[in-house]
Amino acid sequence: MNKSKTTETEQIGGDVYTMAEAARLKGVSYHTVSRAVRRGKLPAQRLGRMALISTEDLREWRPMRERAPRKYRRREPNPEAAPVLLDLASGERVDLANRLATMYEMVHAAASSESLADFLGLAADRFASALGLKRVAIWRLDDENENLGMRVASYGPPISMVPGSAWVEIHEELKAAYDLTEPTIVANAGMALNMPDEDLLDVEDIFVAPLKVGDRRLGAVMGDRSGEPLAPTADQMAFARNLAGITAMAIDRARLTDRARLEGDRLAAVMDSVDEAVVIRDSEGQVVLANESARALLGLRPGAREASFRNASGAPVALEATPTYEALRGVAVESEALMVTDPEGAEIPVSFDAEPLSGPDGIVAGVVTVGRRLERMPEAGQSAPRAEVWSRA
To answer: N or C: which end of the chain has fewer CB within 10 A?
Structure first.
């Protein structure tokens, strides 16, 4: 046995090595070690983002130096390579840091403006990382029909032959998943879920986590290790429960946002069908919603010139003195006639009504203004016809 070989064998004790130290000890590049780990030729265990190689595996590994780039072939094994000094506490700290980072990432993604599809793709990946899963599927129940499930995200190859849109009552594994109250490891999945063998694709143990907000079922997460046993720790299952909670809240938030957008579209369609100019503003006077008549009359389109106002005597009226801003100060205005000069320069007599909108605390939270065109401007001191305010229950 030559000297370098003896030194290398003696240096590898009962410790573990990072890929960088393994490269020094073997006399190869870091990329050679990394490639061997990725291809499964050099076994490694993950601790956070570190890949740790055992002494026995490193001793057995024989890198192909003649295939390495020429500049790396003359490297000699370095007996000064030091093993990683790890203890249980340091490993737990790394795991905790990784979990906190993942939780922060998930919460931030759930609260951001990114699409639900992008978030669920991230969630599937993080479930896989948290539990060492090779396949993950996230199912969501249809908002209008709880008996219809849709696979909305996945990680790795398919788990079963169940189509991407399936009736829950027909597919036992979906019904069982949605009925759970806590994340669970289901052993012998085919038998436990009463599924035919041909529907499952090499599934033995399967991880299942219901997605719920309160008592409302939203979906489920399922995953496995392609037929290998599943034995997550209590900490891993607790972490998976937290991930499931964040995922459920993101789905619920998207559901409420979609519903609010739909209601807003419906309200906008109703408002656009009304001849009167209708504008809803917040407590700062910013436009929340305006129909087509209001946008044309008052110049509420991007780049358009704002309308100007005059009273019955012909005197200019500042924006702060218009009915809208009177209502923002808590004063309801009925049938106030103003001459409006629209963005095209046309002068149009308009009767305005403005009603303050009060919040639960009684403070003005906004205002609704309705403007109705008049045939002529009334004389000073005369009141204009009251504009009709259309409302929906």
So the answer is: C
Beta-carbon contacts of residue 366 (< 8 Å; ≥ 6 apart): 280, 281, 282, 283, 288, 328, 356, 357
Report helix, strand and coil shares of the chain as percent, to nearest 5: 35, 25, 40
Question: Quick check: 291 and 272 in contact, CB under 8 A?
Answer: yes
- pTM higher than 0.85: no
Rounded to a whole number of angstroms, the distance between the first and last alpha carbons of the chain is 91
Tokens representing residue 268 in the block: 């906008």
CATH number belonging to the domain at 3-86, selected among 3.30.530, 1.10.1760, 1.10.10, 1.10.3110? 1.10.10
Within 8 A by CB and 6+ apart from 111, the residues are none
CATH of 90-260, one of 3.40.50.300, 3.30.450.40, 3.40.50.970, 3.90.1150.10: 3.30.450.40
The whole-number pLDDT of residue 165 equals 65
Report CA 11 to chain centroid distance, whole Å.
49
Tell me the C-alpha distance between 58 and 37, whole Å: 11
Contacts of 375 (CB under 8 A, 6+ apart): 349
* pLDDT class of 192 with cuts at 50, 70, 90: low
Residue limits of CATH 3.30.450.20 in the chain? 274-373
| Three-state DSSP state, 156 | coil
**How do beta strands 50-54 and 45-47 pair?**
antiparallel
Fold designation for 274-373: Beta-Lactamase (3.30.450)
The rounded distance, in Å, linking the Cα atoms of 21 and 376 is 90
> Where exactly does CATH 1.10.10 map onto the chain?
3-86
Rounded Cα–Cα distance for residues 349 and 380 (Å):
13
Distance (Å, whole) CA 239 – CA 230: 16
